[in-house]
Amino acid sequence: MQSMIPENRIFSLDAVRLGIDAGEHPWFVSERDAINAHWAREQVERPWLFNGTIMIHRGLTLEHGVISGTSYRAPYAGLLHWVKTQPEADVWHLFGSAVILSSDGAMLLIRMAAKTANPGKVYAPAGSLDESDIKGNAVDVEGSISREAFEETGLDLAQAEAEAQLLGWRSGRHVSIFRRFRFADTAQALAERIRAHIRIDPEEEIEDVVVVRRPQDAGPTAPPYMQAMIDFHFVSPEFDRG
Predict the structure, then answer these.
(1) Exposed (0-12), middle (13-18) or buried (19+): which is 108, by Cβ within 10 Å?
(2) Residue 71, SS3?
(3) Tens-place pLDDT, residues 156-175
(4) Cα distance between residue 16 and residue 22, in whole Å
(5) Which of 178, 235, 188 is nearest to 211 (CA)?
(6) For the domain 2-235, what is the CATH superfamily, name and number?
(7) In a 3-state reduction of DSSP, which class is residue 125?
(8) Which pTM does this prediction carry?
């Protein structure tokens, strides 16, 4: 049956299906001038931000274990304006995260660098869905998870054992999708590999690796969605073999 997506708790789901509407999101059209004005202010305060094309959504629902909805292309400026001024508007932000696990029981997160949209935040490799994630007439959330993990850590998720079950978390109109991936490497070996990637990454988005073995290890800058996933994992860490 169709229902609202559970809020402020980790839940299981089977898939995410987001169809593409080639037009503009109605909210973006109505807010275009305000979005442009907001972005002009952001460019003064944070000139390093990039106004690339991302995907925003409408009408997300959960039915028979599947989140579905409609996706629209929009400039990053639109998302930023929505987050800061109108979080109750008819806009959804959904993104995927790769929860990287080591063979010795740790979770490896990343800390964002100063000149990013979320400086100092600690979370799993993730990013807004964008045009490169469009496959045919739909958005490939699983592909986005793999892409972001490789771009930010240099790790190929195909080399890890992927948990069969997707997990999700929602607060308001923000939806986080997780899949856990267990590598054969120890936390130390994975951290060394990720740090080697950080040193040569021209984007310079990642400051460092954070190794988490207990819920409190992520520190105070882990956002609520990530802390919820950390708490869930270390309370119920069983790895679903499918």
Answers:
(1) buried
(2) strand
(3) 999 999 999 999 999 999 99
(4) 19
(5) 188
(6) Nucleoside Triphosphate Pyrophosphohydrolase (3.90.79.10)
(7) coil
(8) 0.94
